Each structure stands twice: as C-alpha cells, then as structure tokens.
C-alpha cells in the first residue's frame, strides 16, 4: 500500500488499539506482488511483464535521497508501455 502497512477493520494495532475505520478499496489476502502503478489495471502477476499490456515494467527505485527541510529525492521507474510519453532526455 504505497510502502505503508494495511489492516482490516477490527484488527488491532501493535499497541492494542482497534482499527475502526477503513477503505473499501483496500484488498488484503490477495496474491502477493507489486502492483504496477504506472500501468492500467495494476497487475500483481507476470513480473516484470504486465500480462494485460505485454509491457515490461520495473518498479520504482530511489537513486538519491537528501534529507532536509525540503528533501530532494531522485527516483525512477520503467514501463515499455510509456516509451512514447514526451519527456526530457528520453525518460
């Protein structure tokens, strides 16, 4: 869930507090995998190829992170489905 833990309503936190609100869009107990956030459908199988699109997809990687009041983070992803997206330096 975008790097954050997920839980069901009624589960307990580490410190014993019950979880009383939740999102209907959260799926727990589904097949494991990394959903492709850059592709329609967000597949969790076929890594690194999205079986719906036939596109090669590599999840994001952080190359550089500088902490501070205004943190600077340089990260990248790759999807052959988006090769024609106009961007500087062919990114």
Give a description of the structure:
The protein has 91 residues and is mainly beta. The chain is 0% helix and 24% strand. A 3-stranded antiparallel beta sheet has the order 1-2-3, with no helix packed on it. Strand 1 and strand 2 form a beta hairpin. InterPro entries: DUF6531. Pfam families: DUF6531. It comes from Escherichia coli. This is DUF6531 domain-containing protein.
Topology (elements, then pairings):
Elements: E1 49-50, E2 55-66, E3 72-79
Antiparallel strand pairs: 1-2, 2-3
InterPro entries: DUF6531 (IPR045351)
Domain DUF6531: 46-85
Protein name: DUF6531 domain-containing protein
Helix content: under 10%
Largest sheet: 3 strands, antiparallel
Radius of gyration: 17 Å
- How far apart lie the N and C ends? 25 Å
Supply the helix-strand structural class.
Answer: mainly beta
Q: What would the average pLDDT be, to the nearest integer?
A: 66
Quaternary status of these chains? Answer: single chain
Which tags fit this structure?
91 residues; mainly beta; three-stranded antiparallel sheet; flat; DUF6531; DUF6531 domain-containing protein
Summarize the structure.
It comes from Escherichia coli. The protein is mainly β.
């Amino acid at each position: 869930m975008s790097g954050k833990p997920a839980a069901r309503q009624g589960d307990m936190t580490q410190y014993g507090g019950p979880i009383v609100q939740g999102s209907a869009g959260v799926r727990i107990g589904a097949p494991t995998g990394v959903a492709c956030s850059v592709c329609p459908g967000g597949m969790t199988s076929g890594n690194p190829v999205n079986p719906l699109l036939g596109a090669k997809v590599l999840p994001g990687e952080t190359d550089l992170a500088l902490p501070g009041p205004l943190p600077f983070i340089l990260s990248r992803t790759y999807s052959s489905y988006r090769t024609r997206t106009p961007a500087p330096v062919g990114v």
